[in-house]
Amino acid sequence: MHIQSKLPGAGTNIFTVMSGLATEYNAVNLGQGFPDYQMSEELISLVNGAMQKGFNQYVPMQGFPPLREAIAEKISGLYNTAVNPNTDITITPGGTYAIYTALTTVLQPGDEVIIFEPAYDSYIPNVEVNGAVPILIDLKFPEYKIDWAEVRKKITARTKMIMLNSPHNPTGAVLSENDITELRSIVNGTNIFICSDEVYEHLIFDNIPHQSILRYPDLLERSFVCFSFGKVYHCTGWKLGYCVSSPSLMNEFRKIHQFNCFSCHAPSQVGLSAFLKNKDSYLTLSSFMQEKRDHFIQLMRNTKFELLDSKGSYFICAKYDQLSNEPDKDFSIRITKEYGVATIPVSAFYKSGTDNKVVRFCFSKKNETLEAAVERLAKIS
Ligand SMILES: Cc1ncc(COP(=O)(O)O)c(C=O)c1O
Asked: How much of the chain, in percent, has pLDDT values that exceed 70?
């Protein structure tokens, strides 16, 4: 049998490679983005309770209604925007699926999608599998800011969508109000859609306001905004998230969703709908994660890594030029094998493999994990 691959360039991704090495060499894994501590016991018991109460059958395709209502209430409180839970919100099996569905909803072969690099690894394949063309723009190193002049140059009659991600993986950069102004002036009067990946919503530090597209009803009209419960509630294995959009876009999104996943895990939705009623469930997240970031920054002073700024997400990048001239992938592999700490080389987030000699650390780990990792990193000379 011969199959013509839809993604001929896709291989094993760097997260799988580095996690495999971490296991083989018994390394502390600060590579892949997942917490190593327990999630909320309260949320666990709410989900258990939902199963025991019999919430074990399909919920509506759009998602469990009380969960959509709780999300709409949260959006109104945080961003002062009214979204209709019946028409504007759909629960999805994770943020990645929401992004894939958004892209599949709008893209036609030959359409162009602007993607900023370094980029989360699903974006480019998601565009390509739809026969569309990724138009890649580098974020300005080392702040990883968007070069809006470059965006203007790359807009053509075929530009269908701009992908955003804030807080940003892998860099921890966040969008500013000025970025929103620039974005608005570019898309105004065009048919360009926006897909805004906000899976690290709430994980934003130093009291910086999250510039969610949800704050801007004029932009929301042309946007799909994607979220992940797994990321913010320390349960990445749940693969549950949601998408918020405007009614006509969401109507089309649901046409794709209903013939793919159709309906997501019911008991988790029931549990979350109760959990979200308490605002602390999301208002305490940024200080929780900021403490981890600050602890990691403090520990890393004992090493020769030069940390870059992380304003959000649960990642922080570091230059290692005082330690080595090796390409970042070789360096990451070597320190996993020789010093027992796994990281992710940031070149893996560029299609062309741009190498600024930077690695990414994930700090959403127990303090003792971070301390054990840094003790090893301090030995690299
Ligand atoms: C930027 C970004 N978007 C989406 C996701 C995936 O979210 P989920 O696990 O809910 O699919 C990740 C996970 O690493 C991510 O970093």
From this structure: 100
Question: What is the CA(226)–ligand 1 centre distance, in A?
Answer: 9
What sign for the dihedral angle of Cα 167, 169, 170, 175?
Answer: negative
Mutate which of 169, 203, 314 for ligand 1? The one with the most ligand atoms within 8 Å of its CB, which is 169
d(CA 331, CA 324): 8
Coil, strand or helix at 179: helix
Q: Which two structure tokens, joined as six digits, stand for 172? A: 């921890």
For 2-54, the pLDDT digits (tens) are 999 999 988 888 888 999 999 999 999 999 899 999 999 999 999 999 999 99
* Closest atom, ligand 1, to C-alpha of 241: 10
Decide: 210 in ligand 1 pocket, CB within 6 A: no
pTM over 0.90: yes
Q: Bridge partners of 193? A: 161
Is it true that the peptide bond before 118 is cis, omega within 30 degrees of 0? yes
Q: Is the CB of 228 under 6 A from ligand 1?
A: yes
Atom of ligand 1 nearest to the CA of 120: 1
Report d(CA 134, CA 229) in Å as an integer. Answer: 27
Instruction: Tell me the CA–centroid distance for residue 96 and ligand 1, in Å.
Output: 6
pLDDT in tens, 156-182: 999 999 999 999 999 999 999 999 999
Other C-beta atoms within 10 Å of 41: how many? 8
Q: Determine the Cα–Cα distance for residues 373 and 371; give it in Å rounded to an integer.
A: 5
**Among 166, 226, 228, 363, which residue has the most ligand 1 atoms within 8 Å of its CB, making it the best to mutate?**
228
| CA gap 259, 242 in Å, rounded | 17
In whole angstroms, give the CA distance from residue 77 to residue 69.
12
Is the CB–ligand 1 distance for residue 230 below 6 Å? yes
Give the tens place of pLDDT for each residue, 177-232.
Answer: 999 999 999 999 999 999 999 999 999 999 999 999 999 999 999 999 999 999 99
By the 8 A CB rule, do 381 and 310 touch?
no
Q: What is the DSSP letter of 141?
A: T
CA 141 to chain centre: 20
Probe ligand 1: pick from 39, 123, 197, 231, max atoms within 8 Å of CB?
A: 231
- In the chain, what's the furthest Cα-to-Cα distance? 59
